[in-house]
Amino acid sequence: MNAIALNQATLAQLPANIQRPAYARDTLTPSIVHIGVGGFYRAHQAVYLDELLALPGHAEWGYCGVGLLPHDAAMRDAMQSQDCLYTVVERSAQGDTARVIGCIGEYLHAPADPRAVLEKLAAPNTRIVSLTITEGGYYVNQGTGEFDASHPDIVYELSKPQAPRCSFGYLLAALAMRRARGLAPFTVMSCDNLQNNGDVTRTMLLAFARLVDGELAGWIEAGCAFPNSMVDRITPATTDEHRALVRDTFGIIDAWPVVCEPFRQWVIEDAFPHGRPAWELVGAQMTHDVLPYEKMKLRLLNASHQALCYIGMLLGYTYAHEAMADAGIRQLVRRMMDDEVTPLLEEVEGIDLASYKDTLIERFSNPAVRDQLARIGTEGSARIPKFVLPAVREALAQGGAIELLAFTVACWFRYLEGHDDNGLDMPLNDPHGVRLRELALHGGANATALLSLRELFGELSDTPAFAGAVSLSLEGLYNLGARRALDQAVA
């Protein structure tokens, strides 16, 4: 098969089995600006809009993508070279299918042209700004839940509000421009894995705005909507193996394809005063209360991901499906979901929790996806406080069990030391990685140093039941090794 370089001019030449945009891309209005054009966004929100645009009458909606980080230049180059087209491959035990997504009309790189990004955000036809900026991108002090005004990004933004660099800096500067021009504020839509992600975005952005301009903060508070949402699709990081798959199996040369599982879910609070795409026509669920769905997904899927990834890496596994083939890890995940998390969840309309958990086990175990444990374990300092600790707090308040939740935290502590049980290096990708590793190396089997991080653990640092359970598990991981400690945890 002679592979074809993907761009607008070559779309018609692609193999007949490749689904491609069924709409005129040049007629789309870039009314949604998305900040953080990573694999998950391109496999999730962009796919929903692509399917909607295939239906007649929705050309008023299109995406403009924005990258804020210097290393996003690589994504810019890939996207621009392909006219912002890219391939999504869905992988399952039944086989692989590919489609080309075309709903992104433009990609802007903020470090290279900050003015272009600000003007796009402030443009009259920009009605929604959506975000996938990772769980750590909202400047929340995890210990207090308050805005972290001491974060280096925020310290910089406060010193140079006219030259933004981070997401909040760009949002605030663009909203100030809209206010000065007599335009309504855009809707800010978080698509990150945070409970009440819209409410968190609103609280943190307003706290930042009050430090910059009190009147602007009042204007945002009065007129800017922040809908909550729940998003779900397992999407491993793109590798050269994925590029080769797209080239050799589907005949497409794509600089940055994205690979994902077939499953996807999107629950959205219907709060868009300036209009929105009709996402419900393509499978999204519009509701007035996202919280039960968010809580279910974060506590079951995301917390379980944390449970399997660190112990999995300690035991020498690379991929999620390998970890889930380990009987001990599989038992850890299932028992933590059943015994410690499910009792904390309320009924969710339209969801059978037993079936949902069965589906999660099946998804985690999908060998075709090859989801990297290192990806799942990225930014543990943001993910552990958001996915695991809320369940710990609720369980302690209700007198429930926390042993496996605490074991998950202990596995993270042990992982921070940097070597698995065979002495091999484990990757650490965390904005606080240097400090965390120093504390992990200093403390060793003693959890006290890491537990003292009140900005992560808050009052749990001083809670004997939690601190004791984590300490006991960490001692086992160091003294017995990961395998025996796991066996003991699930015994």
Automatic annotation (TrEMBL):
GO terms for molecular function: mannitol 2-dehydrogenase activity. It comes from the Bacteria. Coiled coil: none annotated. Its EC number is 1.1.1.67. The keyword Nucleotidyltransferase does not apply. InterPro entries: 6-PGluconate_DH-like_C_sf (IPR008927), 6PGD_dom2 (IPR013328), Mannitol_DH (IPR000669), Mannitol_DH/Oxidoreductase (IPR050988), Mannitol_DH_C (IPR013118), Mannitol_DH_N (IPR013131), NAD(P)-bd_dom_sf (IPR036291). The keyword Membrane does not apply. Keywords: NAD, Oxidoreductase. Pfam families: Mannitol_dh (PF01232), Mannitol_dh_C (PF08125). Residues 31-280 form the Mannitol dehydrogenase N-terminal domain. Residues 289-476 form the Mannitol dehydrogenase C-terminal domain. Belongs to the mannitol dehydrogenase family. UxuB subfamily. PANTHER family: MANNITOL DEHYDROGENASE 2-RELATED, MANNITOL DEHYDROGENASE DSF1-RELATED. This is Mannitol 2-dehydrogenase. It comes from Janthinobacterium psychrotolerans.
